[in-house]
Structures are given as C-alpha cells and as structure tokens.
Amino acid sequence: MNCQTDTPLRLLKGVGEVTGNKLAKLGLLTVGDLCGFFPRRYEYRGEVVPLADAEYGVLCSTVLTVCSPTKSGMGASGVRYLKVSACDESGTALLTFFNQPWLEKSLTVGRRFRVWGRVKQNGYSFDINSPELEPYSDTLPPVLPVYPLTRGLTQQLIRRVVPAARPLMASLPDVLSEDIRNKHGLLPHGKAVEAMHFPESREELEKAKHSLAFEELLIFQLAVKSLRQSLIRHTAPEMSFKNTGIGRFFSSLPFSLTSAQQRVCKEVLADLCRDVPMCRMVQGDVGSGKTVIAAAAMLFAVKNGLQCAIMAPTEILAVQHYKTLSAFFEGFGIRLELLTGSTPAAEKRRIKQGLKSGEIDAVAGTNAIIQKGVEYKALGLVITDEQHRFGVLQRASLADKAGGLTPHSLVMSATPIPRSLSLIMYGDVDLSVIDELPPGRQPVLTKCVGEENRAAVYKFLGDQIRRGRQVYIICPLVEDGDDEASDKKSVESYKKSFDKTLPGVRSLCLHGRMKGKEKEAAMRAFADGEADVLISTTVVEVGVNVPNATVMLVENAECFGLSQLHQLRGRVGRGSERSYCILLTEKAGDRLDIMCKTGNGFEIANADLERRGPGDFFGSRQSGDMHFVHADVLDMPLIEETKLLAESLLKAGLDETLQGAVSGFFARLESANIFN
Ligand code: ADP
Ligand code: MG
C-alpha cells in the first residue's frame, strides 16, 4: 500500500479495530503519527557475543543452533514449560520457556536463532530463561527499537506497523540548511527520523539523536530569543523615583534588608525606570525574602500611577500573598484585591470593574488575573511567583493589557539553577540572585528513617503536638489506587489510620482534588491553629507560611525530587522554635542523604541536577511542561552550541523554513495550553 501522512492506521494490514483503538490511545491515528512516535530505548541485538563471553545475568545477544529435541512439561505450580538445548562454538545453553507451547514446532534441531536474554553459567553449560527468539538470517536488524507502549500492545505489533511509515520518514522536509548541517555534523531531518526507528548501527543512532536534539534546542532558542527581541521593540510604561516614597517603605519594614536583597531591589527598580519592558527573574532559596522585593516593586509601580498584578500557582499561595502584601502596604494607601477562581461572581465583577476603571491599584491571584476578560486601566507590572514553568508565552500574552504598552514582568523562583538551564526552562530572562538568607535562621534538623521507625516517629509527633506545635504530613497520592500497583501512601486513607494511631490529635486533609474553597478553609484552619496536623499532597509545597509548624514528615520520600523535598522542608523552620524534617522511606541511600547534610538549596539543586534528569529535578509537576522529546536539557555543551548558532541566525535573519519551525513551536506550546 502506498501510504500518505494522513493514511489512517486502521487501513494497514494487521490493524483491526481493537489494535486501532489501542494505537489511538497512544495518539497514533495516522501513518504520519508513527514518524513522530519515537522509541524509548534500544536493544543492540546485532552485537552478538559467544555464550562463553556473556556477562552473567546481563541481557545480551547470542546466535545459537538448536541441538536437541524439545522437552515440555508442567511445573509444580501448574506452569507449562518447554526446554531445549542450543549451542554455539563456545558452549551449550539450556533455554527454558514458560507458557509458550506454540514455540515447540519452530524449535527443531538444526535451526538457528538470534537469542536475546540473560545468560547464566551453570556448571559447564549455560541457562537462559525466557529469551526472545528471532529466526537467524543475515538481514536481521542490528538495533531493535523498544517503543513506549500501553497495555495490550506488543513491541512485535508496533515494529510490524512502523515500517509502513518508513518511506514517509525519509522524505520529511529539512529544517536546517545543508550548510548548517555540514558545519555541525548533522543528518538531514528525514534521515535522522528514519534512523531513530531503523538504526543501522549504534553510531548512526547516536548521530540521529544528536541531530534531532540539536534541531530541537536550536528551534527552542530561536523561539525564546525572537520573543525577547520582539519585546525589546515594545515600550513599557514610564516610571521614575519621583514621589514614590519608596525610601519610607524600606524604613517601615520590621527588618533591614540583607545586602543581597538590597542589590536585587536595585536591579529591579532600575529595570522599572527603563522604557523597555523588564524581563527579569529573581532566584532565591526558600525563605530568602523574595516577597518583600515583589512588594517594593509593586509599590513603586503603583506610586508611578500604574497597576500591578501578582500571580501565584495555587489559590492557597495567592491568599497568602494577599495577606502578606496587605501588611506590607499598610499606611501606603494602596488598594489591593484578591482574585482567584473561587472568588464569588459578584465580587469578581466588582474587582474586574475596579481594575478596568483604575480604582484598584493591585491584584493578587492565580492566573485568573491575566486571563481574557480581565482588563486593566494601566497595567505596569506583572509578577509571577514560584512559576517553575516557561513564562515565555505567558509574557507574550500580556502585551495588550497596558493600553498598547507592554507591562514589566518579574518572575520569582525558589529553584536555583544554572544560567544556561534557566534559559531553557524560563526563556531569555535577566537573572537576579538572592544568595543570602536573613540572619538568625535555624537549620531544619533532617533525618531519613525507615518503616521500622514509624512508632518512634509518631511518638515524636505526639510530643511536638502536646507542646502546641503543628505538623505537616505529605503523602504522594490523593486516594488509594491513584497509582495502580503501588503501596504509596494516599492522603485520604492515611488520615483514617493516622487518626486511629494518634486519637485526640486534630488532623485535616488538603489536596488538589478539593474545591478552592475547601482547600482554603483547610489551610486557614491549619494556619489559625485549629488543627494540629495537616495531611497533604505537595499542594503545600510552595510558599505557604505557618510559623508554628515545626515538623515536616514526608511519606514515601523517594517519590519526590530533591528540590521538591527542599521546598517542602522550607515550610517549617519559619518561627523561632527548632524544626524537624523527617523523610520516611525504604530507599534512603545517598540520593536523599544530601537533604540531611545541607540546607542550601543551590547545593541540593546541583546535586540533583548532576544525578538525575531535570524531569526528576523539577518534580513530576514540571516535567510535563518541558516539551523536549530528544534534547537532554542538561547537555550544556549542546545548549551552548545551539545558543551561539541561534544568535547568529537571528542576526542574519531567519529563512522561511526556520521561521516556520519557530511558529510551529509556538503553536505546539499554545495547544499544549501552557497558559492555563
Ligand atoms: P521566600 O523567598 O521564600 O518567598 P519570604 O519572602 O516568604 O521568603 O520571606 C520569609 C520570611 O522572612 C518572611 O517572614 C519575611 O518577612 C522574612 N524576611 C524577609 N526578609 C528579611 C530580612 N531581611 N530580615 C529578616 N526577615 C526577613
Ligand atoms: Mg515566597
């Protein structure tokens, strides 16, 4: 059959309704979809070793000839088995198959197979249990792709279907010019895609991966940089130091700023006085005091006759910002409002009206505050807090909210990451780092413990609660069964057993499946001391401030990224009392060890980045937002190489193909709904 990009997979031979539906579940509807469905890993079956050289118990490929008739039988537990001897020049192996009676007729003496399995030496011969067999021929593929599949789909099936797309792959149009490809040693796009599915060798596969990663990073950087460039052509609302009373604001604070805070404040206020929109990120560890910087910038903008919006990722955090800022702004005549998804309709209408007329100076909220339908009289500054996401497009969507001018944009992040990575994660932002904590902070005592310590842990919690302290308990799941086949703790059932274990202790649940109002009520009750224990998912991860809470207990701590654990730990140690972080896990090991050794977020971030991918690093919440299929965002040399190329390409002007690729990138981001 002659396949086109839009040929439905259902028309292919061997794809019936059932299989078609399963493929559709993977997003595979057409032959074209198959081109972009990349293998998860590869088996290098062409690298054949003699039996005698096989490493014990490690998957490897051998070529063996059946040298005795099969024997079949039934094991004690009712499992049917099939045994056959097969040999190469270096030795003989006993192959055992379970519940695969149909193999018997092909395992005839003298037939050769390529055998993929774990070879174990057993006296003078070898054992291989449940190997995979391919009838030997010298045209067998040297590298076998392994696809990411859902239940009910086999690798065999997908490997049989994918070749239908092969001619299409080869003819995919190029993204990069021949000149660039030659200079950087890259394969043509179509060739690279084809090689990902049908690699002829390890070398070719590596080259294909490299080529696609290069393209991906280059397009990304082109997109991010052209966005920034277009921003420079925008004009920001005017501000100056005249009559802002910003000095009085600083002297009104109950503390003096650390020198890091002073430096960052200066950088931010200087940006606000330029007519180019600010595009800056403030990075500072948990507790480094980012909020006061936000407050200073907001006050500055409002006193310059402009409006501000501060945006938090969760309602809980938005409410908290609203309260903290209200306190900071007391006596400065700033009309600040709170607007979230659960603000009552009438109230919402009033606030929207006030923002439009200019009666309201500033608004704190979730991203409800920059959505369509919210108009501002003169929006001068947008602050995004704890936004571990691409703020790239979000910023672009602000342009029309300031009467044709583009508001300044400030992003606050508690995740300290290297510059090159922040470029990838957040786009082309200027960076200010608060590299100092306010004086007098006590480190949070941190311990990893196993299940055998549970009783002692609960006794400790009980002691703390009797002393009037409060406790956070974090579980990875909301309800039992949210993650099949795991015994991870869930908030709901944890509460039941916890309440039985510590009767008389007042506990509350908090998780993302609760309604905004319920969440807020629970959080407020905990903050007001009406509950001793808050059993929660990571929704409390960011920003929440309850100074009387002194214990953070994390269940199944191994499920969380280090940076996430560090954020969670940052919820305690906010008052004057000694605070504790207990990581309950059966998999302590050196990954979690660093949590016990240091309280420095930069150190933890670096350790985490080195050890694991950024997907883990940013926790599951963020990894889904990174749209890199091929690129390893920790590949700093490649990031650097593509960054330089992106800069020079932009300087020379993009050709039509690249322009199209960049637009395609934005379209994909938009359809992935990064905005909301
Ligand atoms: P984060 O950077 O995690 O957002 P916050 O802005 O919430 O940190 O600040 C944490 C706490 O430290 C707050 O209670 C805040 O009032 C206080 N704080 C901020 N700056 C200072 C400072 N220079 N000296 C003392 N306390 C400070
Ligand atoms: Mg904060």
- Strand content bin: 15-25%
Query: Mind telling me the C-alpha Rg?
Result: 30 Å
How far apart the termini lie comes to 43 Å
Shape: globular
Number of domains: 5
Which bin fits the share of residues in helices? 25-40%
Q: What is the CATH T-level topology of the largest domain? A: Rossmann fold
Contiguous helical run count:
24
Total strand count, please? 22
Side by side, the strands of the main sheet go: 12-13-11-14-15-10-16
Tell me which ligands are bound. adenosine-5'-diphosphate, magnesium ion
CATH architecture of the largest domain: 3-Layer(aba) Sandwich
CATH superfamily of the largest domain: P-loop containing nucleotide triphosphate hydrolases
Which CATH top level class of the largest domain fits? Alpha Beta
Mean pLDDT across all amino acids: 87
- Structural class comes to alpha/beta
Low-pLDDT runs: 619-625
The main pleated sheet reads as:
7 strands, parallel
